[in-house]
Amino acid sequence: MQDLEPLRAKYLGEIAEATDEAGLEAIRVAALGKKGEVSLRMRELGKMTPEERREAGPALNALKDELGAAISAQAAALADAALAERLKAEWFDVTLAPRPVRQGTIHPVSQVMEECAAIFAEMGFTIAEGPQIETDWFNFDALNIPPEHPARQEHDTFFMAREEGDDRPPHVLRTHTSPVQIRAMQEHGAPIRVIAPGRVYRMDMDQTHTPMFHQVEGLAIDRDISMANLKWVLEEFCKAFFEVESVELRFRASHFPFTEPSAEVDIRCSWEGGQLKLGEGDDWMEILGSGMVHPKVLAAAGVDPEEWQGFAFGMGIDRIAMLKYGIPDLRAFFDSDLRWLKHYGFAALDVPTVHGGLSR
Questions:
Q1: What number of other Cβ atoms are within 10 A of residue 237's Cβ?
Q2: Looking at residue 119, what is its pLDDT?
Q3: Which of 232, 233, 219 is nearest to 293 (CA)?
Q4: Which one is the CATH code of 107-347: 2.60.40.10, 3.30.930.10, 3.30.1540.10, 3.40.50.720?
Q5: What is the pLDDT of residues 78-117, one digit of tens each?
Q6: Cα–Cα distance list, 145 to 153, 203, 259 (Å)
Q7: What does the mean pLDDT of the chain come to?
Q8: Where are the chain's structural domains?
Q9: Residue 306 and residue 299: Cα distance in Å, rounded?
Q10: Cα 49 to Cα 32: distance, rounded to the nearest angstrom
Q11: Average pLDDT value for residue range 183-192
Q12: Rounded CA separation 327/321 (Å)
């Protein structure tokens, strides 16, 4: 069909001169779209005689294929040209050192919690958890803390707000994780060995105190547990946690309402050259409180004090993290400073284990 040659030349010329994808698409629609010139010619085949169709059909199909191939080739050429321009604008020097990959880090408090859990798990302790908003009974009464005790005053404890006329027992932000011990004994009875790590709250704030901090408490109840067992557990913990070969602990008589007898525990240390070394030296530093569980606490938890006895201890996770990793100010734990976390943080995949190492 001689009349197709002008159409062919027209569109091949326009395709060759197209400078962008939008213009090329407009040409495709004009030629091969539903209402395009070639498509309209294809519709005219039905009006032709068989002899005419035998001549026109192959010619139209050939034109359609040729234009389609030309459009595809031009589209590829435009894409290559665009990529070349982009590469010119976005070049980089492959000889430069690669940028460091930014990785997330574990907060020291989370790390130390995991370290404590790993150590006590080796000694047969399981983890117990409880609510951070506690009833007055679980937080004080069940732990043999009398109504006149200073800890039950608003200057020391956060009490939850109540509407006027509400006669329900007051609720508090727990001041220690000891209520978890009561709940664990109520649920599982005796014998039992658990640790209770978590957040606690008190009305205090300075370089070594914050209104919210973290504790881990331990409880072991059996028929013949004594202070000797407590001493062994704490010595083994300190050796593993501070990663020293030996430690020396000193027990000083103290008073806690929930233990009898009670003892503050000091660890031998040295401050030579302004650097703290644990397990050696002539100084002592307090690290935790402990004692034998008071019979009234056992009875409140539903454990017969005539048949069972045990020990309990508690220490500040933030405090022992400061001692181990040389962190000078407790308040920095809660400043959300990424620079601080980058300096003191731990690799996310380094899971503490007693055998593999705690603080790799």
A1: 24
A2: 94
A3: 219
A4: 3.30.930.10
A5: 888 888 888 888 777 778 777 777 678 888 899 899 999 9
A6: 12, 18, 11
A7: 85
A8: 4-89, 107-347
A9: 9
A10: 24
A11: 94
A12: 7
